[in-house]
């Protein structure tokens, strides 16, 4: 199920700087969320497992079932929105899992994704947006006039944006210490710039729904790309400082503005 991944020199150096005890494993199957029995296979390669749980009261009744399971007692690794890399601190030492879906991507980009996981682990940010919003997830849900799955997608995107405001500070220093990773970070950002700049028109023409647009814009924050309105309001120190409260206010104001458009 899992096996040690061979790391390039830039990634090895990044691990030594940010999270030297982390294991990096290849998974033999793709996943959004690993079934608990397969997740527990990690117990064969780590010293201990400590599943995270959250109060069910943090969730609205109509939250996706997978989110209810995540908040419960099942040992849950990976959730929708994680992308090609999943990491967890529910193990000792922490684990970074590389999914098969990365196959075909440039090696430099894969290196960036793994190094990004080390940076996130070093910052001690929550493993999932539920640990970010906590009980305020119900407020976010109430402020979002969309279906529960779209609300989940927006919450995951907003958490990604808040995390990106912090990780990009580390990335900006890579030019000196980790130049190969810095180039990969910049290249990934450059590939997003045009798509991000066109988001308002794509949403207005109905080519992209709002949840998808939010996901793309928030993913761009870690690359220090200029964002169009209304997403530019998330690229602020105020969001980094005030987190969930700011995110919920942004959602309310944004949907109020969308309703007022002719």
Largest sheet descriptor: 4 strands, mixed
Query: What proportion of the residues is helical, as a percent range?
Result: 40-55%
Q: Rounded to an integer, what's the Rg over CA atoms?
A: 18 Å
| Coarse structural class | alpha+beta
- Arithmetic mean of pLDDT: 95
What is this entry, summarized?
This protein has twelve helices and six strands.
Write the layout of secondary structure elements.
Blueprint: E1 2-4, H1 9-18, E2 23-27, H2 36-39, E3 48-49, H3 65-71, E4 85-88, E5 91-92, E6 95-98, H4 107-123, H5 129-133, H6 137-143, H7 148-172, H8 174-177, H9 179-197, H10 199-204, H11 210-220, H12 237-260
Parallel strand pairs: 2-6
Antiparallel strand pairs: 1-2, 3-5, 4-6
Helix pairs in contact: 1-4, 4-7, 4-9, 6-12, 7-11, 7-12, 9-11
Structure description:
InterPro entries: DUF7089. Pfam families: DUF7089 (PF23363). This protein has 262 residues and is an alpha+beta fold. The protein has one domain. It contains twelve helices and six strands. The longest helix has 25 residues, at 148-172. It is globular, with a radius of gyration of 18 Å. The mean pLDDT is 95.
């Amino acid at each position: 199920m899992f096996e040690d991944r061979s790391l390039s020199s830039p990634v090895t150096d990044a691990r030594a700087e940010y999270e030297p005890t982390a294991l990096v494993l290849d998974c033999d199957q793709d996943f959004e969320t690993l079934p608990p029995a397969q997740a527990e296979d990690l117990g064969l390669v780590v010293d201990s497992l400590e599943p995270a749980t959250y109060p069910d009261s943090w969730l609205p009744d109509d939250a996706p079932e997978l989110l209810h399971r995540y908040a419960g007692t099942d040992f849950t690794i990976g959730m929708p929105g994680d992308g090609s890399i999943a990491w967890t601190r529910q193990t000792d030492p922490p684990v970074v899992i590389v999914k098969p879906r990365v196959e075909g991507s440039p090696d430099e980009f894969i290196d960036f994704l793994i190094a990004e996981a080390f940076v996130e682990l070093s910052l001690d940010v929550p493993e999932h947006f539920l640990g970010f919003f906590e009980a305020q997830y119900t407020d976010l849900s109430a402020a979002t006039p969309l279906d529960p799955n779209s609300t989940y997608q927006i919450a995951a995107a907003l958490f990604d944006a808040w995390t990106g405001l912090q990780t990009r500070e580390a990335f900006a220093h890579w030019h000196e210490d980790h130049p190969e990773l810095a180039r990969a970070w910049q290249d990934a950002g450059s590939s997003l710039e045009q798509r991000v700049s066109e988001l308002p028109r794509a949403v207005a023409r109905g080519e992209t729904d709002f949840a998808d647009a939010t996901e793309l814009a928030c993913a761009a924050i870690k690359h220090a790309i200029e964002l169009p309105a209304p997403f530019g309001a998330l690229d602020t120190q105020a969001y980094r400082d005030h987190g969930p409260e700011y995110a919920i206010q942004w959602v309310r104001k944004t949907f109020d503005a969308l309703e007022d458009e002719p």
